[in-house]
Amino acid sequence: MAQSLAKEFTKGLWAELPPFRLVLGLCPVLAVTKTVENGIGMGVATTFVLVFSNLLVSLLRNIIPPKVRIACYIVIIATFVTIVELVMQAYTYPLFLKLGIFIPLIVVNCIVLGRAEAFASKNNPVMAIADGLGIGIGFTLSLAALGAVREFLGAGTITIWGGNPVFAMPESFQAFSFMVEAPGAFVALGLMLACMNLIGSK
Amino acid sequence: MEYFEIAISCIFINNILLAQFLGNCPFLGTSKKMETAVGMSMAVVFVLVMAGVITWCLDTYLLKTLNVEYLRTLSFILVIASLVQFVEMFLKKSIPGLYAGLGIFLPLITTNCAVMGACLLNISNEYSFTKALVSSFAYAVGFGLALILFAGVRERINLGRIPKPLQDTSIGLITAGIIALTFTSFRGMV
């Protein structure tokens, strides 16, 4: 039991790392990773939704009729997204403004619905939480890594939390602003995917 | 003139795929063949216009009058999901030709964030009814334009010899980046 629990948790960190291995939920990955801070904020919000929707879907898995299951999952997910939206609006307002419409759009993030359908609806609640937590942390780390690459190259800073950079390049650093623009997001993600394929294939 | 500006801006400058990053999963998933790209684009045009109009009415006449805007996320996704289901049943019965053409792409649209995203953008930009209608249509056209362009390029790429780690999604993303770069040159237009 403990072993399989650990397995469900760690698979989200490498073997099924969401944006790279599964190539799901790309919209927030590309859109919010201008800075590390935005990436982490988005990742934590998604993790919260993922863990709680997994838990609830798993608890209700014998009650939800199979024919209307997708609609039920969507309602469960949308409820938790609304909770996240209201909490962020109350406590982390600047971040809420920066992430904009991508917070309500967690509802249509394929990773969340995908985990509910593929995992939580077939396993017990403890396993479902482990799975949600693993995938969520993997998602957060991927967003933070992509954010770090883009922010470092595009602005010469690394901002983890609260708007103050923890690391900044000297004044003479020529920022490669292509990286924080829209096209840079696609190219950076494509190159990181290629690096992961290179490491994975060895 | 105002409507024309909105249309140009939604199709080219704020292109929903390449500038707003909405709907990227179908963008990469259905762009391997021109045929699927065209099918997906048509399905999006069809659903997005209807969803844009219905969610705008819902938001203005129901949510705002009852003061329950916090239910927006929940109600929008339900409207879109049931709309997709309804459109599917309607087409199957009355226009089987179009239904066969759109096929699997219709149900996939429920989780296409371009639809939900465009509806939310209409609300946050505080558009009037006609403006929301124009912008929904223009966003959908922009989606189709980018998807079909990308599918054309990607079909050619598959013929070339690509290093193994870069194959498939990776080179697809880099190509998308270059296409997005060309779209940034529209910025000065409006």
From TrEMBL, chain A:
Keywords (A to Z) from UniProt: Cell membrane, Electron transport, Membrane, Translocase, Transmembrane, Transmembrane helix, Transport
Location of the protein in the cell: Cell membrane; Endomembrane system
Recorded superkingdom: Bacteria
Class of this enzyme: translocase
GO terms of biological process kind: electron transport chain
Quaternary organization: The complex is composed of six subunits: RnfA, RnfB, RnfC, RnfD, RnfE and RnfG.
Family the UniProt entry places it in: Belongs to the NqrDE/RnfAE family.
Descriptive protein name: Ion-translocating oxidoreductase complex subunit E
Organism of origin: Desulfotignum balticum
